[in-house]
Amino acid sequence: MAIKFAALVLGLLAISIFAKDVTSVLSILLFAILSFTLIGTNAKQIFSMLWSLKLVVLLVLLPQLLFMDWSLALVNVTRLVACILFAMLFTSTTRNQEILELVELLAKPLKALGIRPNTIALLVAMALNSIALLNKFVADIREAQLARGMKPKLHLLVLPVLVLSLKHADDHAEALLARGVEV
Amino acid sequence: MGSITLKDVEVQFDGKTVLAIDDLSLTANTIAVIGANGSGKSTFARLLNGLAKPSTGQVLVNEIDVVTEPKRAVSQAGFIFSNPDVQIVMPTLIEDVEFSLRSVGLSKAEQNAQAMAALDAVGLKHLADAPAQSLSSGQKQLLAIAAITVRKPSLVIADEPTALLDLGNAKQIAQLLLSPVADQVVLVTHDMKLAGLCEVAVHFDQGRLVSVGAPKDVIARYEKMFA
Ligand SMILES: Nc1ncnc2c1ncn2[C@@H]1O[C@H](COP(=O)(O)OP(=O)(O)O)[C@@H](O)[C@H]1O
Ligand SMILES: [Mg+2]
To answer: Counting atoms of ligand 1 from 1, which one is nearest the CA of B44?
Structure first.
């Protein structure tokens, strides 16, 4: 696993340093997508995965288009997407427990600063977990708003999601204590 | 056999006494806790593993003082909350159960084997690698039970564990808990049928202990209050 991670880091480094033209970044992107098909991901899943990156892409692409040549901007963004795909490939083929152990290992030096590595690992685990939960909150609130005849709008979601999240954080903290987590 | 003993206990929030118990000793295997909303049931439940601290008095569980030995108090007790969502720590079922064993000092393989067995016992083995958040509420509660029983706690405290579940799921969870899953099970519930299945019932009202004894009698007196 550590080897796989090292390969990931080296691979990403290599991509960022050496992939500078359109053909090489496109072939890297293709390679990333092919790797996903190797682990049994179907076209639909790959498409929805790429689609989920749309915000990131827009956020990165727009400013670059303003200040840079469009082909260079395209290369940069494609490279970023390829890197993200490789990172996703890593996380989807590695058990969370293993990722946590790695995080814990990497956070060891922080011990000197009085930060406990397993606290960091736990934070990462909870972050992984909260993504699914946030989706659920959003779905619940949308439903509640629809039921009351409101048109769900993005800005009307922010406050309720925040409230639900804070409430959840309180209850979750208590549940963690009950499960013997020392923070 | 387990034992719960409270002596001269008072719990205060903001200077207000929300629970006062002079003397209570429980050795039954299954104990129902009943009473109106706000009567102090959750506070009582949370005293037993140290989540709530008494302002005065002593809480002993299996002779362990939960105030002076908080670590042992937490590790000998498992706690199940009403809301199944808040109890999940890890992304997948198996990892969530393994998480409970992280500091027990077992090998990886042993951790996995025990976690699998615990999932099997609640009928979730086939979902071991599924995302925990994709489970139904009933399944999440079963997962919570697996994540707790894998540690083989001597006390399991469940605070309205079936409040958010449909009848079928509620029944399954209740049966599992009262099987019993530990030497002692404390079950906070508004379901009088469920309370009736326990060996002993405890009734709180406005932070006071009203009665302790055979569920039949305790429930009858509780129901009379609303007659
Ligand atoms: N953390 C807290 N801070 C302030 N008051 C609390 C807190 N927890 C409980 N209480 C109060 O203590 C009383 C008993 O609450 P609780 O034990 O939750 O009752 P029950 O579980 O029977 O509904 C209530 O009046 C409640 O408002
Ligand atoms: Mg309560």
So the answer is: 17
